[in-house]
Amino acid sequence: MTVVSAGVDSANEFSEFTINFANDLSVTTQNTVNTTVADVNGTYQVVSEIEVLLNLTFHGNSSFQALNNTWEVTSYSNTTVSLRSTTNGAVTLVLSKI
After folding, report:
1. What is the pLDDT of residues 12-29, one digit of tens each?
2. Which of 70, 78, 92, 96 is deepest in the core (most CB within 10 A)?
3. Beta-bridge partner residues of 47
4. What is the edge-to-edge ordering of all strands in the sheet holding 91-96?
5. With contact defined as beta carbons under 8 Å apart, do 42 and 24 qualify?
6. How far is the C-alpha of 16 from the C-alpha of 96, rounded, in Å?
7. How many CB atoms lie within 10 A of CB 29?
8. More confident site: 50 or 39
């Protein structure tokens, strides 16, 4: 995962986590290095009109709450999804498939 805000990549905060999107619109993060760290649960919503938007909402973990936003999908492939904040275009998020 890459998280860039004002040119600063803060992905290290999330490097030990996987993010799993389920078909029931729930999203769960899991620490793959330290299993004593509690999972972080949230929800997502995909909105498609002219552009595809992903709305993320995490609860109970301040690091992941920083990702609570509506994101515009700027590009995607079989292995990555690139997102840009709809409230601050300088903030980008890239999710990579493991």
Report:
1. 788 888 999 999 999 999
2. 92
3. 53
4. 8-9, 2-5, 91-96, 80-85, 69-76, 52-58, 40-48, 26-31, 17-21
5. no
6. 13
7. 22
8. 39
Q: What is the mean pLDDT of residues 91-96?
A: 91
Average pLDDT, the chain: 88
Return the pLDDT at 1.
67
For 80, the domain range is 2-96
**72 strand-pairing partners:** 53, 84
Mean pLDDT value of segment 78-97: 91
Mind giving me the DSSP string for 19-86?
A: EEE-TTSEEEEEESS-TTSPPEEEEEEEEESSSEEEEEEE-S-HHHHTT-EEEEEEEE-SSEEEEEES
Residue written as token pair 């275009």: 89
- Residue whose entry in the numeric block shows the structure tokens 């389920």: 22
What is the rounded CA–CA span in Å between residue 21 and residue 9? 23
Supply the CATH number for residue 58's domain. 2.40.128.270
Q: Which tokens is 13 given?
A: 């905060």
